[in-house]
Amino acid sequence: MDQPNKLSPISVALHWLVGLGMIALTAIGLYMSRAEVWALYPIHKSVGVLLFVLILARVVWRLKNGWPAHLAGGSKLEQALAKLVHWLLILATLAMPISGMMNSGAGGHGIDVFGLQIVPSQHSADKPDQALPYNAGVAELGDEMHEWIAYLLILALVLHVAGALKHHLVYKDGVLRRMLGSRIEP
Ligand code: HEM
Ligand code: HEM
């Protein structure tokens, strides 16, 4: 379990695996959809579904373990902002894969993990190269959510990284070192 001066290796590993995975998928998602690099779609979707499993483990772990204990640095306003941003980030880790799966699954494009089929694709007989949605409304909602929540995620992440750097460079407390696995002075 997490201690105020030392986070459990599970918290640290889940934070960085999920965090760096989210950053990579955001960058790939924005690039592939704007540059229309279709070959990246199945890789983005497969990694996203696998990351979702880790994300669920992380959310369960957070619910069981509570949030890391607060450390000294920062005004009351900064502390409240940090809490809000942590909530936005963790909710975005759930909303991004769910909306992606709504878009691909309900849109008839299919979902598979490196060839292992999870939801089959569906095509009309007369236009075999076009996906036929199972539920166009759900697919459209997923598509909109996937794009707009990504913008919110990027904003939250900029604030999050700025906060981590401010703790490290200005307050010189152990917030960043603790998330890197170090035992810090209480
Ligand atoms: C290079 C990027 C990142 C850095 C430098 C970073 C740094 C940190 C640090 C230092 C903490 C500890 C805060 C505390 O002790 O109160 C933290 C916590 C947290 N971070 Fe990040 N982070 C990064 C990326 C991400 C990403 C991409 C996400 C999610 C999408 C994320 C989600 C969270 C959450 C939810 C917490 C609260 C504690 C927890 O649940 O483990 N972080 N981060
Ligand atoms: C797990 C975290 C995920 C993140 C952070 C993420 C991020 C993104 C981003 C930022 C985009 C560009 C959005 C846009 O501007 O339209 C995108 C596109 C896309 N993502 Fe994800 N994604 C994730 C998971 C998934 C999953 C699990 C699936 C499906 C199984 C998926 C399917 C797609 C598809 C089909 C597009 C292209 C949408 C279009 O061309 O309009 N994503 N993703």
TrEMBL record:
Keywords: Cell membrane, Electron transport, Heme, Iron, Membrane, Metal-binding, Transmembrane, Transmembrane helix, Transport. It is found in: Cell membrane. It comes from the Bacteria. InterPro entries: Cyt_b561_bac/Ni-Hgenase, Cytochrome_b561_oxidase, Di-haem_cyt_TM. Residues 8-181 form the Cytochrome b561 bacterial/Ni-hydrogenase domain. The chain crosses the membrane at residues 12-32, 38-61, 81-99, 148-169. The keyword Cell membrane applies. Its cofactor is heme b. It is a multi-pass membrane protein. Its main location: membrane. The keyword Metal-binding applies. Belongs to the cytochrome b561 family. PANTHER family: CYTOCHROME B561, CYTOCHROME B561 BACTERIAL_NI-HYDROGENASE DOMAIN-CONTAINING PROTEIN. This is Cytochrome b. It comes from Roseateles albus.
